[in-house]
Amino acid sequence: MRKKIVAGNWKMNGTYEDGLKLASEVIHMVQDEVNSDVEVVLCTPFIHLSSVGKLTKEVPNVHLGAQNCSEYTSGAYTGEVSVQMLRSVHAEYVIIGHSERREYFNETNQQLAKKVAMALSAGLTPIFCCGEPLQVREAEQQYPYVTQQITESLFDLSEDDMKKVVIAYEPIWAIGTGRTASSQQAQEMHKVLRQHIANRYSEALAAEISILYGGSAKPDNAEELFACPDVDGGLIGGASLKSRDFLQVVKACK
User: How does this protein assemble (predicted)?
Assistant: First the structure.
């Protein structure tokens, strides 16, 4: 049975003190109110990783994640953070290929393939993001667009490594725009992605992979989205910055 996962992506928000307060609140709430079948991941800015890692490592179903990693092991790459650095502060997950990294920093499918391989080599679980912008959705080309992202970044992996990847579908047109993909639209894309993986590997492997919805899930729509048969949780942006809102999203993942 595949994992139910709700990951909070704080993006570039909050001071060091804000982050510790938020992490502490979420951890206490999860311990008190959430079924342990759901894995909660806090994907913090780099400055919080070490301190938040000390809080999460004692809590079975709350995990630490980073928002990015380098495709290089080490060296003269000013401003970059390696997977070994992430492991050294108890990170277990890392977001790779978020739409903002693709759009603002021009990360390519080929570069992301290197990052995925690097993360796996260090024992980190990649949360690999994929998704289409508005013009692609309006042209009804979303399925070939998103499956190509999966093909070019993930399909060189062995079966054993592919099983370790979590996928997050981001309808870019629904992030921070006030629009949200309907549960039907989310389910349709998740089903297409799962079948695409099955065609490359096997139905059994595809059935094991968690595919998260990453398009502005909030307390008022999370339960409907997470009820879809191929939606295994969410990669949560804005709602992850308020502990009570985030908890409500987590609790919607049943």
Answer: Homodimer.
